[in-house]
Predict the 3D structure of the following.
Amino acid sequence: MLSGTTKIIVGLIATVMMTTFIVGLAHSISTGFAGFWGGLPFWIISVSVLSMAAYDFWEECVRKK
């Protein structure tokens, strides 16, 4: 088992890396051939996935049980 501090650090690094990748991919889709309206569905999916990831980080690492 990991200590509380280690879980927070590792979870934060992983969440930031995933957020960076997803936002970069969504930006690339929106500014490329698809344009803003073509990339809008992916942005909506990305925001919902990132909000679930943030909630999971909070639930698993930050919240005291």
Summary: The helical segments are 4-31, 35-62.
